[in-house]
Design a protein that fits this description.
The protein is an alpha/beta fold. The termini are far apart.
């Protein structure tokens, strides 16, 4: 399959593993489309989320980021150059210039790894399988973010991971490949997120392999509720619940 990759300039460990799986496969990366926008500062993010009533949660996540072990992000420039495929930087992925550039690549699918804002038509329908993206959740029940949080909050026994062909709405595309991962009774948000990322790195490659069989993709009959970042009260609630579970002797 001939693909192009939508990415930011840097990748976290999960994104890097997804890319390495694809690069080691027979699938042909025909181009890289890179988000060249300036990243929002922490203060800008806090200001936005405070207005949404989520400032407390975002501040806690920021503090955890600063005090955790330095995992860093990988600069993708070397990987892009070594692939031999052309690299195109854009500040507006939905612009006519970007669309025209992607069309010249004559690809089967765009693989969304990171970066960018809202993706719109005609980009979503620019090639046979449009834009393929991860959603760490079961779209029948959980759309939005953050991964794993609301499944823990609602005492779910498992979490879904989906590769979807994006549509105009949030996490309401056509599923290409899905998997289920158990939620353990004493999971923390960190342990659950770590596991769902580790278990799903090969899912994008599996989806590309599956698409080579030229299946007919279909939208789901029903999509779940849209979730967003929790407020401070919800964050405190889930952490108290996790603490009580860790102190208990047996799962309930």
């Amino acid at each position: 399959m001939k693909i192009a990759v939508l990415a930011s300039k840097y990748a976290d460990d999960f994104q890097l593993k997804v890319l390495k799986n694809i690069l080691s496969s027979p699938h042909n990366i025909a181009g890289w489309i890179v988000d060249d926008r300036n990243a929002k500062s922490l203060s800008e993010k806090l200001k936005y989320n405070i207005a949404k009533g989520r400032g407390g949660y975002v501040l806690i996540m920021a503090l955890k980021y600063f005090f955790k072990k330095n995992e860093g992000s990988a600069d993708l420039s070397g990987i892009m150059q070594s692939s031999g495929a052309p690299v195109y930087f854009t500040k507006n992925i939905n612009s006519n210039e970007s669309i025209d550039k992607i069309k010249t690549l004559n690809i089967d699918a765009l693989v969304f790894i990171g970066g960018f804002g809202i993706l719109k038509s005609p980009l979503l329908n620019i090639c046979t399988y449009g834009v393929l993206s991860y959603h760490h959740g079961d779209m029948r029940k959980y759309r939005g973010q953050p991964p794993g949080f609301w499944e823990l909050y609602n005492n779910e026994k498992e979490i879904g991971v989906t590769i979807q062909k994006l549509s105009g709405g949030l996490d309401c595309g056509e599923p290409v490949m899905e998997m289920k991962i158990p939620v353990n009774y004493k999971d923390t948000l960190h342990s659950l997120q770590k596991r769902i990322y580790e278990k799903s790195t090969a899912l994008m490659l599996n989806a590309l392999d599956f698409l080579e069989t030229r299946p007919v993709l279909k939208k789901l009959d029903e999509y779940g509720k849209i979730y967003t970042l929790p407020n401070l009260r919800q964050w405190l609630f889930i952490n108290i619940k996790i603490l009580l579970r860790k102190l208990s002797l047996k799962p309930k």
